[in-house]
Design a protein that fits this description.
Blueprint (H helix, E strand, L loop, with lengths): L3 E6 L9 H15 L3 E6 L11 H5 L5 H12 L2 E7 L7 H10 L6 E3 L6 E3 L5 E7 L4 H6 L4 H11 L7 E6 L7 H17 L2
Length: 195
């Protein structure tokens, strides 16, 4: 079945020399080869101010780049979020992206009572791909994948996205050419399956 895929590239540096960018390229190539439709959002290329109050978050004052990002997410059947782990979590710019884009009225809305949140993005699936310097198993075991779980539970699932799968790629700074090729092949296959 052909799927519509939106890939969110969460590295805050817009230069294209990062391992995460190569992962995005391999995933998109595999998806295109299999006939899936692909849109890409590069967080580094968006003008994203940081929110500073609840009122700013609730106000519908989103800019054109934020509305275009919302349109790309609304269009998609499957979301792919790719980012490097910085200080144990996602980079601040990617967090700002989620805060700006996943606003009330788009990602969730209040029910009739005004007390409970209704999920607005149900029916979408997601894959989160995180690169890191530490071993991925150590992150899962010792740190209990705390920041990954926060993204899954408190942002994506809270808005109705699921199931959510993850791929953790550890020790990236030690990769040789062979290891890089192995990961590119894995990403290509994930893209072909829209998984």
């Amino acid at each position: 079945m052909v799927k519509r895929i939106t890939i969110i590239e969460g590295h805050p540096d817009s230069s294209k020399v990062h391992f995460g960018h190569a992962l995005v390229e391999a995933y998109a190539k595999g998806a295109n080869e299999a006939g899936h439709e692909v849109k890409r959002l590069s967080v580094a290329e968006l003008d994203l101010p940081f929110l500073r109050s609840k009122e700013e978050w609730e106000a519908d004052t989103s800019s054109q780049p934020i509305r275009q990002s919302q349109d790309a997410i609304a269009w998609a059947d499957h979301l792919v979020v790719v980012y490097p782990m910085w200080h144990g979590t996602m980079p601040a710019l990617l967090k700002a992206f989620f805060e700006q884009v996943f606003r009330p009225g788009f990602a969730m809305s209040k029910d009739e009572s005004g007390k409970m949140w209704k999920k607005q993005l149900t029916g979408k699936t997601a894959r989160i791909i995180v690169t890191m310097g530490m071993p991925a198993l150590f992150y899962r075991w010792y740190f209990r994948a705390h920041s990954l779980k926060s993204l899954e539970r408190n942002i994506l699932a809270f808005c109705g996205i699921g199931p959510i799968k993850s791929t953790l790629i550890g020790m990236v700074e030690n990769f040789d050419d062979n290891k890089i090729k192995q990961w590119m092949a894995k990403m290509n296959k994930l893209g072909q399956r829209a998984a």
